[in-house]
């Protein structure tokens, strides 16, 4: 007893060590269980939302394999029985989908090239070069984003008519080489996340601004550039109003115009229309899955610095 009392008086903290050790020894297990439950709930919610978002695509593919009787069945028949695989070759016979896809890819490639050349240069000027009135001009560029396309549609059409470009792809491709405000803003925000010290060190070594742009900024901006390219491809793939205005030959139709024409002429053949639509979206879906990691990285990193 005396020895225990002497230890308690000399080392008072030791009395509380074992309860604390037991307490902290139990807590991580409880915390780990809570974390597992929380992650499980999050995954279940995400899987549910993902399944809901995939329902339209599943219904599209399902309808492309149905006959007209199966499409009009009540209650709806989710899985076609039997599947009509013949809808796909018949749709290809009615609609030259691959020609329309080729035309759309040509327009998208030209616009992506123009956007990456022009928007990156302008964004570098707004983010890395200091010049009088830079912020004012950048604000004016952003203000142009508030103008809807319908406001500029008629003046642009008059301009391109006088240039003799109507009926060709020039009105669709050439404007991209003059920069687009949204992509200028996107790239400018990403460039500002790159440390300024890298550019200063290059300037001290005698590197020009164009050298800094090509050797430092662009190699470090691959995620943002890929995000811009994917955004532009998605917009060009779904664009309907601009090709409708400037293209007047069926051989030059894009995929959106081709599907619209087929819908007008064969509006009752839903199975064939859904088959053609399924084929038309496969390239863009495949491209997104291939580039999704870099795309998400570019979107995440963009806008971290104002």
Structure overview:
Helix 5 runs antiparallel to helix 14 and helix 12 (222-238) packs antiparallel against helix 15 (270-301). The chain folds into two domains: 16-64; 95-301, MetI-like fold (Orthogonal Bundle). Residues 13-25 have low confidence and may be disordered. It has 306 residues and is mostly helical. The chain has 15 helices and no strands. The chain is 75% helix and 0% strand.
List keywords for this structure.
single chain, 306 residues, mainly alpha, MetI-like fold, 2 domains, 75% helix
Element layout with pairings:
Layout: H1 2-10, H2 14-64, H3 68-71, H4 87-94, H5 97-127, H6 134-143, H7 149-163, H8 170-173, H9 181-191, H10 196-204, H11 209-220, H12 222-238, H13 241-246, H14 255-265, H15 270-301
Helix pairs in contact: 2-15, 4-15, 5-9, 5-12, 5-14, 10-11, 12-15, 14-15
